[in-house]
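> example.struct
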């Protein structure tokens, strides 16, 4: 069997930046075992496979890392919507389109807008409401990240697990220098993950070069040493920050930088809405570029 695929870079307007994604727009006939092998063959942080939805949504999307299937991820939704829009699956883009992807974590709504001067912009709405899990001791987290305990800030939140469909451990650090110095000790991360809901660590600092947030995401136990741009993590992060904001009601835009430390700079555009002390909306968007297409033989 032959399957068409596209390779795009997500959360960037420039080729060879952002987060790589392979998209199989017509994956009917592939089983989970085959999809896992294909994802391992590409060895990107994720590969997405598109199927018809039997529940009336625009498409069904399954997402695989090199080692496992995940219920939700940000850049695969943005990149998949971009690829399908680019190949005409959503019809003409003379006005914004709203599409829905059926996924394990729930239904992901994505808006697709074509700008003549910038290209196609896709923005997802988080499939689940923000959920906040356990906090982790700063000394343990510092050890995992090869940092000093004093490098970790706790004024807004302690190292904290949160999710909008996929859980991450969020860690705010003191400065850009600390962020760049962070390095995961895999043996200590493995010990932490045995007693923690996630092995994904999202580390960030604030207000760097006109960005509200500068971030790095580590997932080495899942075959991803460092992710260039993580929509699911940043969605949960801005939700967590909105929740901890003193204002009961707010609408906030978040301009986020990620991937610079590994030579794949990415830009993510987040939005949050908070009403009566509750986070009621989280959105994450960005641009993408198409780099390659081909045929995969199975």
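> example.seq
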């Amino acid at each position: 069997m032959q399957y068409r695929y596209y390779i795009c870079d997500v959360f960037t307007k420039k080729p060879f930046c952002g987060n790589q994604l392979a998209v199989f727009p017509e994956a009917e006939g592939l089983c989970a075992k085959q999809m896992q092998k294909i994802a391992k063959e590409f060895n990107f942080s994720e590969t997405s496979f598109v199927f018809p939805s039997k529940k009336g949504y625009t498409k069904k999307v399954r997402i695989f890392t090199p080692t496992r299937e995940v219920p939700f991820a940000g850049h695969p939704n943005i990149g998949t919507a971009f690829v399908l829009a680019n190949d005409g699956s959503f019809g003409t883009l003379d006005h914004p389109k709203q599409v829905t992807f059926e996924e394990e974590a729930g239904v992901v709504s994505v808006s697709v807008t074509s700008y003549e001067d910038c290209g196609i912009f896709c923005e997802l709405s988080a499939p689940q409401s923000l959920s906040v899990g356990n906090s982790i001791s700063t000394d343990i987290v510092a050890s995992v990240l090869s940092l000093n305990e004093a490098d970790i800030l706790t004024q807004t939140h302690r190292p904290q697990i949160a999710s909008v469909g996929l859980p991450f451990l969020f860690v705010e650090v003191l400065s850009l220098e600390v962020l760049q110095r962070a390095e995961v000790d895999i043996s200590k991360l493995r010990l932490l993950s045995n007693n923690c809901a996630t092995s994904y660590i999202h580390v960030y600092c604030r207000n760097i070069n006109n960005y509200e947030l500068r971030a790095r995401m580590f997932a080495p136990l899942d075959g991803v040493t460092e992710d260039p741009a993580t929509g699911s993590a940043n969605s949960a992060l801005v939700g967590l920050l909105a929740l901890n904001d003193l204002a009961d009601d707010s609408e906030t835009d978040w301009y986020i930088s990620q991937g610079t430390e590994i030579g794949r700079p990415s830009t993510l555009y987040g939005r949050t809405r908070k009403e009566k002390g509750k986070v009621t909306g989280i959105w994450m968007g960005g641009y993408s570029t198409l780099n390659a297409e081909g045929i995969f033989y199975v």
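> remarks
The longest strand covers residues 278-297.
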